[in-house]
Protein 1
Amino acid sequence: MTKTLAFVLYPGITPLDLVGPLQVLSALAQVDPSFEVVVVGQDLGPLDTDTPLKLTPSHTFDQVPEPFALVVPGGTEPTLAALANEPLLSWIRRAARTAEVVGSVCTGSLILGAAGLLDGCQATTHWGFRDLLAKFGATPVAERWVEAGPVITAAGVSAGIDMALHLVERLAGEQTARTVQLFIEYDPQPPLGSIDWRSADLDFFRPHAQAMVESALADHPALLARLTT
C-alpha cells in the first residue's frame, strides 16, 4: 500500500521550509516506491511565498484526506495569519487523526498548535517565536528537531532538512537515510562556521516578532489576546 507524504502549502510560506524536506522525502520515494510525495493546498492555484517565487500544490485538501504523514512549513507574518485560517486548520486536524507522522518546520509548529495538536507535547520552532508554543499548551525546547509521539517539529528553516533525514531513517532505516543524504549531497559547511548561540543577541528580535503577531492577527482579537497576554 502506498504511503502518502503530504506537504501543506498556504500563502506566504518560506520556500526552504517546504522545499528542503520535500527534496529529502522525494529522494526517499525514488529509492522506495512504497512512498509517494504530494503538496496539498486549498486549491490548485499558485501561491505567493516570502520570496519572489510562487509555488503551486499538486493536490487539493479534498484529494488527500488521509495521508500517512503531513508536514507543515512555516514563515513569518503570513504564517501567523494562517493561525486563523480555518480551512487549513480543519484539514490538518482531519489528516492528523489518522496520520502516523505529523510534522512541521519553523513556525509551522504554531499552526499545529492552533489546530490543537501540541497540547502537552515538547515542541520547537524558530528561536524568535519559540515562546509562543507555550500559548498552545506545548513545552518549548531549544532543539534542532524534537519528537513527541507522532508529532515531530523542527526549528528554523534549514532544520527541516535535518528533520526530514531523521524521518527517512525512522521510516526506511539508517542505510536508506545515508543514501538519501549522499544523493542530495547534504554536508553543511557554512563559511562562518556554526552559530554561537551563547553569544547571539536573541532579544533584539522580540519587538519585531511582537509587531508581526499584532499585524497578522489584528482581525482576530481573541487569538491575538491569547498569544500576547
Protein 2
Amino acid sequence: MKIYFILALIFLTNHCKDTTSSSTTLSNNPRNTVNPQKLINATGNTLATRFNPPLGYKRRKLPPASFGYFLRNLPLKPIGSKVMYYNGSFKKANVYEAVVDMEISNENLQQCADAVMRLRGEYLYAKKAYHEISFRLTNGFRMDYSEWIKGNRLAVEGNHTYWRMKSSPSNTYQDFRRYMEVVFAYASTISLSQSLKSKNLGELQIGDVFIQAGSPGHAVTVVDVAENDKGKKMFLLAQSYMPAQETQILRNFNDKNISPWYSGDIADKLFTPEWTFMSSHLKAW
C-alpha cells in the first residue's frame, strides 16, 4: 500500500480501481470511422515505428528536444510482451497493445498518476532540465528534484513536511529513480490534477493528460497525435493502473478499426478499457 501523510485533513488516495465498474462501460454503438488497415508494425521497437497513423492521417514533425518527441519515441518491448506487475506477476486483462520498455521497482508505487509523472520526469531528466523536475505532494508540499540533488530528503513529522539534509550531493540516475519513488508514495491523482492546467479538447497535443481526481481516480497520457488535412486528430494513450505495473499503450475497444488510436472527435466522453473520462478531464503540464 502507498504511504500517506497524517494530516489534520484526510487526503484521498490516488488508487485506480482494480476491477471494472459501470464507469468503464463502452459505448454500445462503436463508430467505424476508418477502413481496416495495417496500423501495427510488429518489428517496430519504438512507439513511432510500431504504430502507423490511420489512413489519411500524418504525424507532425516535432523538435527533438520536445516532450512530444520524447513520448513518440518511447522504447517498446517486443510485440506480444505482457505487462508485468511490481511483484513479477503478469496482467491478465487484455487491454493493451504494447508495453513501454521502462523498468519499475518491486514496490507497489507506480500506479496511474505515477506513470504520468514518471514519463514527465524521465523526459526532464534526459534533457538535464533538473530544475524543472518538481511535483506537488498530496498535502501541497512542492518536492523539487534540485533539493534532492543537494542531498536533502523528505522528512515528515505529523502535519509538518520539510527537507532534511541526509545525504551527500549526487545526481545519478539511481538518485533520480529514488526521488521518483518517494513522489509516487506521497502524490496522487488529486495533487497531480491540481498541478495541471485545463484545456480544450480541440487543442489536444502530445503530452496532455486525461485525469479524473479522486479515490479512486485515474490518469492517462496522450503519447502521440496524428492529424489529417482537415485538422482532425487521432491519438494514442498510455497508462499504468492498480496494482503498480508497467506502462502500457491502450487498445481502443470502442472503435477497433482504428485501435490502438483514438479519435479526437469526442462528444463528451472518452471510453478507455479500464476507465471513462469526460472530455473536460483534459489537462496539460
Protein 3
Amino acid sequence: MTGIDDKTIEGKTIEDKDAERHRAKMAKRKAVQDAEVAGKTIEKGLLIVNTGPGKGKTTAAFGLALRMLGYGKRVGVVQFIKGKWHTGEKDAFAAFGDRVVWHAMGEGFTWETQDLKRDIAAAEAAWAKALDLIADPSISLVVLDELNIALRYDYLDLEKVVAALKARRDDLHVIVTGRNAKPLLVEAADLVTEMGLTKHHFSAGVKAQQGIEF
C-alpha cells in the first residue's frame, strides 16, 4: 500500500504502480489499434451473410437496417419465406414511411405449403422484387430474409443469384439470412457470421413468443 495515493474502486485498492502499468499497457494497445484502423482505406458496399443454426440471423440484419435508417438512408426488405407471419419488426419499420420498402413474399416453409411449384413460383417472385431493390439507387441496404432457405431447396438458380449479388453497385450493402448458406454464396460474401446454437428455449417446451420470435 502507498497510503493516500492509493485509489479504491468498488472495494478494491489499486496502487499507483498498478495504475501506471495499466495506463502504459493501454497506451501501447491504443497505438496498435489506431495503426490498424488507419490501415483500412477501402469503403465499399458489403455482401453480408448471417447463417447457422442459432437464433438471431434476421434480428441482426434488422439491427443493421435500423442503424442505416438512423443515418437517414433508405432500406429494402424482401422476405422469401416468412411472408404470412405478422411480425413486430414490420410494424416498427412502418413508422419510417417510404424510407423502408418492405415486400413479404413468402408463403411459409416448404413443409407447410407442400407444393413445390408454388414454392418455386413464390421464390422467383421474391427474387424479382429483390432485383428491383438492388437496382434502386436510392436504397443503401437490402435485406434478403431467408434467401438461404430458397437456395437450399433449389427454388432459385444459385449461380445466377450469386452473380447478381456480386454485380450490385459499389455502394450497396446486401444482407442474406437463413440457415445452411451455400458455399458459393459464402465464398462471394465479404462478411459471414455463423450463429451458433448453445441453448434454445424451444427444447424446454417454450413456444414462440411475441416480441422474441415475431
